[in-house]
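Here is a typical sample entry:
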Amino acid sequence: MTTTVGARTEAIEAARQAAIASGSVRQELITYKGKDVLLPVVSIPLELTLYSPSSHRIRAQILSASEEIQKLFQKEPWGEKAQSFLEEQLRATEGYSRIKGALEADGQRYPGVVSHTGVLVNANTRAAALRDLGKQYIEVVVLPTDATDKEFRAIEAALQMEEDVKQVYSNVNTLLFVRDLLQDYSKEEIGLLTWRELRAKGDKGRKEAAARVEQELSILQIIESVRARSQPPIPWTFFEGMRQSLLEIAAGYQKTAKTNPVKAAQIRDARIVGMLAGLGYSKLREVDDTLVASYLGDAFAENSVVGVVANHEPVVGLGEPEGLDLFSDSDVGGPAASDSANSVPFADLVTLLATTVDAPTVEISAADGTAQTISRQQLLGGISTAYATAIEAKSLDDAQGDELLAPTKLLKEAAKRIDAARSSYESVRARADFDAEAWKRAYEALDRAIQELNNAYPSAGSA
């Protein structure tokens, strides 16, 4: 990795020329600048290759690295420290062990792609695995000397699903890749590069390609909106595994924003709070206008933790990233949705949660101005409980809307809760810190309710 650019370039070109002169060189078809071209497959020493700091295999990891690492990549991206960091991140990717195992068992079946200076446009992971296996050479095709970053991105997009063992880019890295491709390509072109099966569908495929890219960008904009509310910004890698939740939030916002942007913004922020608190995507679907307007306020107020949090002062400004049309609420007239009576300031809660991702504790301010420090896990638990309480209350009210079905549905819900209470009680009854008196009072209240039910329906026990 200490070889000079000139020496590396000369050695790669010499290997390429020697392969061509041998007369038995294998060739690989590559789409280059919109045309299919055959390029010779060359075996070059691994020591002549460099990991690409622009690889979208680990783009989120690079952007989420420490400030020291960021400066290192700005100053010496080809230096030993930066290259070692990239190799470490490649080894940590989810599919690395599969790639390494396949290479050990079958050898390198498909060539990588490098620039004429040795930068790996494709096969960064395979290069790391080959090094770990003690191999000295890697098979590659060498791009022409006029290849630019635009061509590198296009080739990476076209080849990312065609590795010798498929290792699909993570969700966030795919989003960042789509964003970077916008520098050179239209949404339709990006879609056709990324999802090549759409090419055979003609006009329908092109429309679908553009629509898929729009969807990816809508998800990316939510992430960027949340990151803009935190200092320092939440690492990109924090959002891995949240794709379906992000998709629900984006789709819900777009559905309502055109007719009622204030309502859309409030529901969006309420769903983001739920997501950051660990609410699953299926529960996020329950967070609609009715839940936000009529149930969450009471559920928060009744909760000993978030009843205080809901009235905290904003931690930082709530500005949105520039150029994000999806979240351009600035032209909405009237008061913010969170300022209405008996509501929760969801935008402030997004900021609070986004700003304290790595903090063990959170400092909040109550309505009377007093400060309070609580565990962040306690805060997340309180928020989750409030959401669950609101969703349940709405579900029960919906059941009562049908007079004929309400009694049976409510009784079934009660039975489920009694079973859950019994199970929970059995797991903690022996603990010294368990509040046995509170349990006794709750049990007595249950017994009273059952007696009253029996009085109303005497034959319940024998039915």
User: Anything to note?
Assistant: The mean pLDDT is 84. Strands lie at 27-32, 35-45, 112-114, 120-122, 137-142, 361-365, 371-375.
